[in-house]
Amino acid sequence: MTPSSDTSYSATPLTSRELYIRLLGYVRPYWRIFALAILFMAISAATEPIFPALMKPLLDNGFGGKTTGVYNPWVLPLIIVGVFLLRGVFGFCADYALAWVSNKVVLDLRNDMFKRLVQLPTTFFDNQSSGAVMSRIAYDVTGVTGAATGVLTILIKDTLAVIGLLGWMFYLNWMLSLIALVMIPAIALAVLSFSKRLRATSRGVQRAMGEIMHVLEESIEAHKVVKIFGGQSYEGRRFADASGRQRSQSMRQTIAAAALGPIVQLFAALALATIITVAIQQSNTSDQTTVGSFVSFITAMLMLLAPLKRLTDINAPLQRGLAAAESVFDLINQTPEDDFGTTVLGRANGNVMFRNVHLRYPDASREALAGINLSLPGGKTVALVGTSGSGKTSLANLLPRFYHPTSGEILIDDHSIETLTLASLRANIALVSQDVVLFNDTVAANIAYGLQGVTQESLEQAARAAHALEFIQTMPQGFATLIGENGVKLSGGQRQRLAIARAILKNAPILILDEATSALDTESERHVQAALDVLMKNRTTLVVAHRLSTIEHADRIVVLEAGRIVEEGCHAELLEKNAAYANFYRMQRTAEKQQENWQEKQPLS
User: Fold this and answer.
1) By three-state DSSP, how is residue 290 classified?
2) Residue % of the chain over a pLDDT of 90
3) Of 581, 446, 568, 455, nearest to 503 (Cα)?
4) Is 431 helix (H, G, I), strand (E, B) or coil?
5) Mean pLDDT on 394-423
6) Which secondary structure element, helix H or strand E, spans residue 269, and what is its range?
7) How many helices and strands (H and E) does the chain possess?
8) Which residues, at least 6 apart from 361, have a Cβ–Cβ distance to it below 8 Å?
9) Which of 504, 524, 582, 136 is nearest to 323 (CA)?
């Protein structure tokens, strides 16, 4: 039994401030580069007031016939070019340094997410679609940099520019400057009112992207099923629905972000209109405001609008970044597999004992396993048989601690597996299942997966024992041949034999075979069964099987029904009882006969 998929993100108790502080923790290792970027930004921002400052003497004196000093017709243009050249150079250096830090932060976050991902328990993957998890690592993490570095860029650079321009404006006319400042509280209130909406819509966009990735993943992996059953239209509708939800959330986010700009501009226009009115009155009643000072003031104020708008718009990328950070840290904060064991198990003798083991999955109506008492002597083979849902695979999954029993105890060589370190426990177990997992790598890399220092001779010995060497040697590059995603370039029997070669090379004393031959044709099964005979020799083997060839020769057969052991014994003993196993055996014999007859009637290809 597998709990249903859930693509929703878990809630996190972290506040916005705590999230941001944690994000900055990923910037801290690169603080020198970051500080240099801030310095470059500060120099670039310090040049902002220079241009409006040049307007005052230019208008008040530059057009009055003076041609010396700064009023020389060649000097002032050169100063202006020099100012913008200085801004450009330091702006480029600041942008490059911040991009370097941003990409380092993304790299570190992705690495931390992946490290945690491979440590998570099986139950996590039961409850998450892999598409949603991939979306977090591939998509959400890039949104974090907007808050970690991009927001800081705007905050520091534009804040310094605003301070410089306001300082110049106060120097020119404090009364007009105070009028300009009136708009700041109104803008702040508008920003706060949009914050919650922006965060909520950002979460919605991320969830929708997870759904898109989920549909994409399923359609790509199941493309043969989609084609043969004519599911293109159905998958198209699923993808269109997911994309539509993402578009809807994006538009809601756009509305919230875009509405803020016009509101800010409206407040700015009101302030500008008031300033012009007051300035005209001042020029009529006194000499407080000259043409040069007024133009300089208006120039500074207009230049102030751009950094102010960026500072008000900072809320949108900040909320998107914080929403992305919630998703990223939710994954990083997931509890890894329990590994509280302290005993390091050397090479085990392989004596396995199940004592009164019970297992109930979350939200299940009944126990998957109830009162299992079972002994697997070292070097012997025990086969589990029973109908689908009887608990065979659940029992096998408890041995490597993919799941924990609800109650009871499992022992290896008189050590409770809960007291063993995970690494030492799993080092003693090899697994070959019906759903063979191979990687888009070479034949050699797949056989030697997880092992270090494997020689070519060892690879060939394992492949030969698994009856795989013959077909490997016929491949274009032999052991260096790439086999495609999950071994797509191989037949089912070849993939199984590579998995068996991997288990042989690991040389673990305990072996789990989970229906390793159930999906093979008769010819492939002969090869695979011969390889399994080599693999099972002198190993404690727990076999979950339907095929009679892997059941009949077991040292002991255990029959499960509804999570309980109803019979156990050797093949001959159980047939003589003429009970549950005998009925199962007759059904399997009939099914296999029908399969063989069908295959004999097929034309030779």
Assistant:
1) coil
2) 10
3) 446
4) strand
5) 91
6) helix 232-285
7) 23, 10
8) 1, 3, 368
9) 136
**Cβ neighbour number for residue 27 with a 10 Å cutoff:** 19
What is the distance, to the nearest Å, from the Cα of residue 603 to the centroid of all Cα atoms in its chain? Answer: 48
Which residues contact residue 416 at a Cβ distance below 8 angstroms, ignoring those fewer than 6 apart?
A: 409, 410
Residue corresponding to tokens 């008031």: 274
The owner of tokens 């509708």 is 237
For 386: left if phi > 0, alpha if psi spans -120 to 50, otherwise beta; the answer is left
Q: Tens digit of pLDDT for each residue in 312-362?
A: 667 777 777 888 888 888 889 888 888 888 899 999 998 999 999 999 988
User: Rounded to whole angstroms, what are the CA distances from 367 to 247, 359, 533, 560?
Assistant: 43, 6, 34, 13
Q: Nearest CA to 543 among 534, 551, 533, 535? A: 551
Tokens of 554: 């077991």
Q: Is residue 554 classed as helix, strand or coil in its secondary structure? A: coil
Question: Is 430 strand, coil or helix?
Answer: strand
| Block residue for tokens 């159905």 | 234
Lookup result for tokens 């590579």: 498
Task: Point out which residues pair with 543 in neighbouring strands.
Answer: 383, 513
pLDDT in tens, 585-603: 887 777 666 666 665 555 5
Please check whether residue 374 is in contact with residue 382, taking contact to mean a CB–CB distance below 8 angstroms: yes
pLDDT in tens, 288-325: 667 777 778 778 877 877 787 677 667 777 777 888 88
pLDDT at residue 179 above 80?
no
Tokens of 35: 């500080």
DSSP letter string, 525-539: HHHHHHHHHHHHTTS
pLDDT exceeds cutoff 60 at 198: yes
Asked if 159 and 312 count as a contact pair (C-beta separation under 8 A), the reply is no
Q: How confident is the model at residue 224 (pLDDT cuts 50, 70, 90)?
A: low
Residue 569 falls in which region: left (phi positive, over 0), alpha (psi -120 to 50) or beta: left
- As given in the structure block, the two tokens for residue 116 are 């945690």
In this structure, are residues 250 and 205 in contact, taking their beta carbons and an 8 Å threshold? yes
Distance (Å, whole) CA 103 – CA 40: 19
Counting every residue written for the chain, the total comes to: 605
Q: Per the structure block, which two tokens stand in for 524?
A: 């492939």
